[in-house]
Amino acid sequence: MTPGIRPLIAGNWKMNASAREAVDLAQAVRAGATGLAAELLVCPPFPYVAGVCGLMAGSGVAVGGQDCHTAVKGAHTGDVAAAMLKDLGAAYVILGHSERRADHGETDALVRAKAAAAIAAGLVPIVCVGETLAQREAGQAEAVVAAQLSGSLPEGFEAAGGVVAYEPVWAIGTGKVPTEADIAALHAAMRAQLGAKTRLLYGGSMKPSNAQAILALANVDGGLIGGAALVAADFLAIAKAAG
Ligand code: PGA
């Protein structure tokens, strides 16, 4: 944690859940989201954003998208504009997740343009960075992340409340987690690069059994949760571990 920064526990549902399951999950998260020190966020697939925004209204649980386009509107079949998410009541958007960098060839420059579009639309961007296993084994993790940060964050990111999620690619969905010392070192480096106010999340196989230790580390201001965010009890247990 960082003194003075409210922790953020963000659920990235990825491309999961039927319409019915999305409603059930949102309702269960809402029901358990009382008396928490951390801010809670759920990021459903696009088709469910409107419904989940409705279900979360007045609960204090924020809703976000998992991507947005750089343009305000136009001929971009299949894409979603930041303003559309904002219009529905979303507050955040995840950008540059490693799955999008891999599946869709997203570059730092594209992520930066998307983050600028999100800020312009009034959304808070959550920009994801993280090294591959080969890069970590080559001792390049901090350098890779530093370069991703300098390439992916637009002007005004910190002032807009921008969030960074450090997600080692090799830890996502694998059950593998870096050592606490490695997470702390990486987050300290990000803090030195970014300044005092940016919330720095850890993501990658976070679960109730490891959340408390990870969230207790200096400069870890919350988590971006994938698999465990699909089980309301697990997601809420992680949120409780944030204090
Ligand atoms: P995981 O995913 O928790 O399933 O590892 C995290 C993420 O990709 O955001």
Structural features, described:
With 243 residues, the protein is α/β, with parallel strands linked by helices. Among the domains are: 54 residues, no CATH class; 104 residues, Alpha-Beta Barrel (TIM Barrel), CATH 3.20.20.70. 42% of the residues lie in helices and 15% in strands. It contains ten helices and eight strands. It has an eight-stranded parallel barrel, surrounded by seven helices. Strand 6, helix 8 and strand 7 form a beta-alpha-beta unit. It is globular, with a radius of gyration of 16 Å. The relative contact order is 0.17. Bound molecules: 2-phosphoglycolic acid (PGA). 2-phosphoglycolic acid binds next to strand 8.
Summarize the structure in short.
The chain has helices spanning 19-32, 46-56, 82-88, 98-103, 108-120, 133-137, 141-152, 180-194, 208-215, 232-241; strands at 8-12, 39-43, 62-65, 92-95, 124-129, 163-166, 199-203, 222-225.
Features:
eight-stranded parallel β-barrel; globular; TIM Barrel
Morphology: globular
Distance between the termini: 10 Å
Low-pLDDT segments, ≥5 res: none
- Share of β-strand residues: 15-25%
The CATH topology of the domain at 66-169: TIM Barrel
CATH superfamily of the domain at 66-169: Aldolase class I
Total beta-strand segments: 8
- From the alpha-carbon coordinates, what is the Rg to the nearest angstrom? 16 Å
Biggest sheet overview = 8 strands, parallel, barrel
Mean pLDDT: 97
String of helices and strands: EHEHEHEHHEHHEHEHEH
Helix coverage percent: 40-55%
**What is the overall number of helices?**
10
Q: Strand pairing plus helix content: what structural class?
A: alpha/beta
What is the top-level CATH class of the domain at 66-169? Alpha Beta
Bound molecules: 2-phosphoglycolic acid
CATH architecture of the domain at 66-169: Alpha-Beta Barrel
